[in-house]
Design goal:
Two copies of one chain form a homodimer. With 221 residues, chain A is mainly alpha-helical. In chain A, 80% of the residues lie in helices and 2% in strands.
Chain lengths: 221, 221
């Protein structure tokens, strides 16, 4: 609320502008309907917190380089894919004040677009031989989907303790933020201690974000 | 119909038995609900045409080795993930005579399980450093999702020519079969000509399969 996102972005403003061109290119498809949808997704783009964290983490630990851009593209493609899949998952018909892809094109298309974005992210990482980014990201996807399922299971039983709540949000929300920070660091240093510290930082940040989000939700319900 | 699947499997029977243990292990999750669902998916497993093609292609071009098993696991995880996602996509409530995952646990879970399986496949390939398999597979996923979207777009316009039909089935069905044959070959030989020939063989086989499937569907409707 109080601290402006522009102020946070300031140290990596130039890189973010370059990144946007990068990312637009990365989403291109030969299928016209796919192109129309990804264009629409880019239009309603959010705060780009995750790429910002990739660039900030990289700059903090070393010198931003092409591998940092790959990490940022990969994280943002993955995040976008999971948002599109979340639209199915939550049956959400509005997102960020726009109608969701799901509402406009239905579940069928949402799943396909999500899968397409995942595969594009993969190919970018493979083509540039950034295998460590891929490993970080696949781990995040595994944790996220397990966390969501854990939530479904536990929510049904109505017996969530604080520990279980922390487990769930650590997996479903914090793991991608953690991956963003770690991948940023990994793009500039091979020091595993530093990379793991950045993962932990991102994990705490992601959990704080989710706690705040859940508190606001329960205040408004 | 007339040629028995057992006869086709015969040359790689032993490898398929080993593979099944492999695959069961690969699907394991720390989330109990995830485990329950993947167990259910394994129970109603299909003909395993894709792993069979991986092993046959490998045996035809060289000597089956651990990389062949990785390729087979990867292809089958991916195929299972796309089946689970297809259940959302097609709103299909029956598959192979069983109720689909979607019908039992709804879209929410189907998307998550599909994503989980994709990430598990990724991690297996990354951990064993089988990057070329990953490249083959990501290309297949990209082609499949684009092909499905192309079909949605074209079907709406009701102006499908034979060429467009072939384009669609080449992408949406044949690319994963092609990937299975190519990955099998790639696990035993570095000869790119041979690998590409196997891709083309799988592509023709996949297209033939889809044409037969579409013909039966139109005969029954």
């Amino acid at each position: 609320m109080s601290i402006s996102i522009d102020k946070i972005k300031e140290p990596v403003k130039g890189e973010l502008l370059d990144f946007e061109k990068h990312f637009r290119e990365a989403m291109k498809s030969s299928a016209p309907l796919m192109d129309k949808i990804t264009y629409y997704i880019i239009q309603k783009k959010g705060k780009q917190i995750r790429p910002v964290l990739v660039f900030l983490s990289a700059k903090m630990c070393g010198t931003i380089n092409p591998s940092t851009y790959v990490a940022a593209s990969l994280i943002e493609l993955l995040h976008t894919a999971t948002l599109v899949h979340d639209d199915v998952v939550d049956d959400a018909y509005m997102r960020r004040g726009f109608f969701s892809v799901n509402a406009l094109w239905k579940n069928k298309v949402a799943v396909l677009v999500g899968d397409y974005l995942l595969s594009k992210g993969l190919l970018i990482a493979l083509d540039s031989q950034n295998y460590n980014h891929l490993h970080t990201l696949s781990t995040a996807v595994r944790l996220m989907s397990e966390g969501e399922l854990l939530q479904i299971e536990k929510a049904r039983k109505l017996d969530i303790t604080e520990d279980v709540y922390f487990d769930i949000i650590r997996q479903k929300t914090a793991s991608l933020i953690a991956a963003a920070c770690k991948a940023g660091a990994a793009s500039v240093t091979e020091n595993l201690d530093v990379q793991n510290q950045l993962w932990l930082f991102g994990e705490k940040l992601g959990m704080a974000f989710q706690i705040k989000d859940d508190l606001f939700k329960s205040l408004n319900s």
